[in-house]
């Protein structure tokens, strides 16, 4: 075994980490962020309670409770707000619409089970087109919460495609009793409409007056995300388990003052596009003490629609989280064209993820991502790269061939700079560091400090500049340890 020692003092590093290893609450992380992090506003609610049972709810797992959810949430909101109680039981329902000043409290023992009947999910307006209404949805709200220790089950198996390569023989046999299989036999789809939906949507491009009826043939393909709260202020998600989503699990969009804490996310590893927590273009965000299993990225930052050069995603603190299976533990991208800054990730574990720290984008959906601070990250059994920067990311969907997905865009070029990554330990990875920029925009100004990684391959870079490695140790048999192409100012101390 060859050791690359870069002036590291392991004793000092251990002392640093042991000093950090003290219980710290959410407030501590916010106050000690390496930028001026605003204190997020946690919504508060009147003490009034509204029980779904009093509004016709039945918890037998067979009675449809869509109207009962609507009635109790509406009554609570119209009364000035309060807590909606969902007691133990199995509450079958179609989509739930959230409202301002309502705390949807799902008690331990309660399962909110979304119907597998896709016909009961309406289409709603989304930008210039339409989308399927998410199982839990709220738009333009203020003071809203989802709390309790209950479970939300999205019945995702009724929506998602399944790649044969990801299925066991028993799964593939069971899935084939319904739905359809692609011509090449590689992907199962829940319906012909789902399988053909992507091609059908191409016929609507440029059609400015497309109606809901125009989008209906692609409805099964447009599978919804489990929880979407958009354009809202003072949002709290605290306690529940979210599982089996048709698409992403949690996807807050354009929110201000968002707190997600003490939740469990569980999508199967083979769940297509089954991201865990995806934050889109939001500000003043805290993600604290969450545990994620995902079929795609674990905890991910996204940003689109930038205006006047202002970063659309900023002031984010992520702490004390665990990500098990996922394509990445902490992830940025792929869409970063809205810009990002001021993100602090601290004291997290990534175990068995494909990639540990994953930063990705490509020309056509990239933007400026800067001032990212990642500290005290402890990883084990990472399948590919422990730390990855990739500006050639290809988003390949089910049934697509990666070789046919080409990056032809010349605008929205990603720029990754001013990353500060420190106090990282990774036991077992395929590659320690992989950094790939663009010739016209290298990945630049990265600082790695107090890092220990054991991996088959060491440090690989292309089109990168001004990379600082201080007290870094790569344990590897690779020779050479450093493989650089079109890279400059790689400073090893």
UniProtKB/TrEMBL annotation:
SUPFAM superfamilies on file: Pectin lyase-like
Top-level taxon in the UniProt lineage: Bacteria
The protein, known as: Glycoside hydrolase family 28 protein
One Pfam family from the record: Glyco_hydro_28
Keyword Protein biosynthesis applies: no
GO molecular function: hydrolase activity
PANTHER family associated with the record: PECTIN LYASE-RELATED (PTHR31339), PLASMIN AND FIBRONECTIN-BINDING PROTEIN A (PTHR31339:SF9)
Keyword 4Fe-4S listed: no
Similarity remark: Belongs to the glycosyl hydrolase 28 family.
Signal peptide (from-to): 1-21
Keywords in alphabetical order: Glycosidase, Hydrolase, Signal
